[in-house]
């Protein structure tokens, strides 16, 4: 095929890769935001790792309180927090920033997988005109590349914004990010260059689960839970107990394996939490809750994956709340050193919770699109699109909030009651308040994420509610 | 570019042998066999739910039947992958559906040129040919119009122009006049049958409209997924 001939198909795909409808634009924006968020955090990790040793301060405390070596007249580019400056802590802080990338990557991936009714019609029409799967993957590649490049370009300014908040805006001695320099500029340029192939390849891979034909788009059906799904949580729980019991003999390895088993438990128990929540909700008398429960039961595995993250988020809240109780028992240095870090971690977890919950959008959107005809019939008969939105909103709240609150309680029980409660007497009231605070924070962040996600499904609901979907075969 | 080789003029363009297909527990087609010769115009009729569309979708390679064989242009479709089936749709075989077949983001001329563009033709040549086919189909004024601004009949004309641009040897149409009024439907059918007669292509029309069926060379009537009757009309 000559270059001129290839240009024909390429020009068509390039035009089609541009988001045209409002729903398509929203999808592209979500993909770009996911890339931009993860890019800014990667740049933050890079900035932390490239801090010049000896340019910043550390805490010194005496009877009059805590202050930094720069004191009240420190240099403008210094004043970094010990988490960033001290070589023993810097790596951990950078890893924390990288871990926060995960929810943003999840968001970008989920946005990629989210279809829109217009996009599905376009793919079916292209297939009718003779587009092969390779052609459609090419289109997905261009869509992904476009969003990834825009996101990577936006990562630079977003990092600057992050630096303003976590640098100049913080007092000397607690700044988390150093002034941007050459490493950040080079890292940003590398990121933009890498976005072209990576965004495209990931998007092309994400397009695989759906089979497109002129008759429409067929997604791989969700398989029901199997015996392996039933056994996995039990084995994970047994491994946690084993490694905790023998961790003293195994040292750091035991603790690491116990942590890995906890992650496995959180992931494997997710679908069961959804199954139980959906089962309970489906039996409620209220129409909205009952329908939301039935929608959860129709596909327990997709939201189940997010539940794993939400459980982990909840556990983190529980542990932090209990740790705060523990730290407030200590001296002024401990309080100054740990509380700032915990506040930062709590904010980071809240962001992770909102972003992770937002990824529920994919499953809900696919469900809405797959059932476009029944949605259109529901709207044509009696309900409004707003009613369908309420059902989806309830569905997301049911998927996110109970799991996060359950996680908070679990984290509080393990760390608060077992570890702290057994060592310190007289902290009962403080621990009780900490539990309430952890549950409230967990519920709030999960609910905010669910509500944001429910808003994001609205375009799919609107496009599925139209009368043109009544004649969909 | 099609992977399916050049067919013998005397060879049937389509042979279905003992096709059986079910959607979950509902058997849509049971033991259907039929042969379509080059240039033949065949109407597949029957009441709703009798399996007409399923037969057409099997013939077009959109559905893999649970049993039976499909031979298109002398080659079995059994081992053909999705990509090979897609290439067929931009080569020797064309498909016209009742609605929803134009790419919403492309103008009329680009929709018609699409199979050629996908096949690697240059945009200038593809659009020139597309304009020619739009003109033959009486839809030249739709060249720069997007599907959302077209009426049902106009969109069908553009779809027919697109189905003809690759000079197919077999045209498949699933209720092509189903969304049109009687005059628009008759005009569209005149266009499809006229082009099929002129080019010597075979045409299979699935319809429940007797006036459409009456214009075919042969009619096959399905009932409950089986061939209930067969009549030569010319």
UniProtKB/TrEMBL annotation, chain A:
Domain of life: Bacteria
Keyword terms of this UniProt record: Cell membrane, Membrane, Transmembrane, Transmembrane helix
Domain ABC3 transporter permease C-terminal: 98-205
Transmembrane segments: 92-112, 147-170, 182-204, 225-246, 258-282, 303-325, 337-364, 397-420, 432-454
Membrane topology qualifier: Multi-pass membrane protein
Alphabetical list of InterPro entries matching this protein: ABC3_permease_C
Subcellular location: Cell membrane
Protein name: ABC3 transporter permease C-terminal domain-containing protein
Source organism per UniProt: Kineosporia mesophila
Automatic annotation (TrEMBL), chain B:
Keywords: ATP-binding, Nucleotide-binding, Transport
SMART domains: AAA (SM00382)
Domain ABC transporter: 14-234
GO molecular function annotation: ATP binding
Coiled coil: none
Pfam families listed in its UniProt record: ABC_tran
Protein name as it appears in the record: ABC transporter ATP-binding protein
Source organism of the structure: Kineosporia mesophila
Lineage: Bacteria, Bacillati, Actinomycetota, Actinomycetes, Kineosporiales
């Amino acid at each position: 095929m000559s270059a001129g001939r290839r240009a024909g198909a390429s020009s068509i795909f390039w035009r089609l890769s541009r988001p045209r409808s409002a729903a398509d634009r929203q999808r592209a924006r979500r993909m770009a935001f996911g890339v931009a968020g993860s890019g800014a955090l990667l740049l933050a990790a890079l900035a932390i790792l490239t801090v010049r040793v000896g340019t910043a301060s550390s805490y010194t405390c005496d009877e009059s309180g805590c202050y930094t070596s720069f004191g009240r007249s420190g240099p403008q580019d210094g004043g970094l927090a010990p988490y960033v400056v001290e070589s023993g802590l810097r790596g951990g802080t950078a890893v924390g920033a990288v871990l926060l990338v995960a929810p943003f990557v999840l968001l970008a991936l989920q946005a990629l997988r989210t279809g829109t009714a217009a996009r599905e019609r376009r793919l079916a029409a292209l297939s009718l005109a003779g587009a092969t799967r390779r052609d459609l993957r090419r289109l997905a590649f261009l869509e992904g590349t476009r969003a990834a490049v825009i996101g990577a370009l936006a990562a630079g300014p977003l990092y600057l914004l992050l630096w303003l908040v976590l640098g100049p805006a913080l007092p000397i001695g607690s700044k988390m990010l150093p002034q941007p320099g050459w490493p950040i500029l080079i890292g940003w340029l590398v990121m933009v260059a890498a976005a072209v192939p990576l965004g495209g390849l990931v998007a092309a891979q994400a397009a695989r689960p759906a089979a497109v034909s002129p008759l429409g788009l067929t997604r791989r059906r969700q398989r029901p839970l199997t015996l392996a799904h039933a056994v996995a949580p039990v084995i994970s729980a047994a491994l946690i107990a084993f490694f905790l019991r023998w961790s003293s003999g195994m040292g750091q390895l035991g603790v690491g394996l116990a942590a890995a088993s906890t992650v496995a438990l959180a992931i494997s128990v997710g679908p069961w939490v959804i199954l139980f929540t959906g089962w309970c909700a489906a039996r409620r008398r209220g129409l909205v809750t009952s329908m939301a429960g039935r929608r959860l039961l129709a596909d327990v595995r997709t939201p189940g994956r997010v539940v794993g993250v939400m459980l982990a988020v909840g556990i983190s809240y529980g542990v932090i709340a209990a740790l705060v109780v523990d730290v407030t028992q200590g001296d002024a240095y401990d309080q100054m050193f740990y509380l700032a870090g915990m506040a930062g971690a709590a904010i980071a977890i809240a962001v992770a919770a909102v972003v992770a919950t937002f990824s529920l959008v994919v499953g809900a959107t696919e469900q809405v699109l797959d059932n476009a005809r029944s949605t259109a019939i529901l709207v044509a008969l009696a309900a409004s699109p707003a009613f369908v939105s309420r059902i989806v909103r309830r569905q997301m709240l049911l998927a996110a909030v109970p799991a996060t609150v359950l996680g908070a309680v679990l984290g509080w029980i393990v760390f608060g009651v077992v570890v702290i409660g057994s060592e310190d007497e007289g902290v009962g009231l403080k621990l009780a308040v900490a539990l309430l605070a952890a549950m409230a924070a967990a519920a709030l962040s999960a609910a905010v994420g669910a509500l944001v996600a429910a808003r994001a499904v609205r375009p799919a609901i609107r496009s599925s509610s139209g009368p043109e979907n009544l004649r969909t075969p | 570019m099609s992977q399916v080789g050049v067919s013998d003029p005397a060879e049937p363009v389509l042979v279905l042998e003992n096709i059986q297909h079910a959607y979950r527990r509902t058997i849509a087609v049971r033991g259907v066999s039929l042969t379509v010769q080059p240039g033949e115009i065949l109407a597949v009729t029957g009441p709703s739910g009798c399996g007409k569309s399923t037969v057409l979708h099997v013939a077009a390679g959109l559905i893999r039947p649970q049993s039976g064989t499909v031979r298109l242009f002398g080659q079995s479709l059994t081992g053909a992958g999705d990509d090979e089936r897609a290439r067929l749709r931009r080569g020797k075989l064309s498909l016209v559906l009742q609605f929803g077949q134009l790419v919403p983001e492309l103008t009329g001329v680009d929709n018609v040129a699409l199979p050629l563009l996908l096949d690697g033709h240059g945009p200038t040549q593809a659009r020139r040919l597309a304009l020619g086919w739009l003109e033959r189909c009486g839809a030249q004024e739709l060249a720069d119009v997007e599907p959302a601004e077209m009426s049902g009949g106009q969109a069908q004309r553009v779809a027919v122009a697109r189905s003809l641009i690759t000079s197919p040897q077999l045209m498949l149409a699933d209720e092509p006049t189903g969304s049109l009024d009687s005059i628009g439907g008759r005009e569209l059918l005149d266009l499809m049958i006229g082009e099929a007669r002129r080019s010597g292509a075979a045409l299979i029309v699935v319809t429940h409209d007797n006036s459409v069926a009456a214009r075919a060379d042969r009619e096959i009537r399905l009932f409950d997924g089986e061939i209930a009757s067969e009549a030569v009309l010319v």
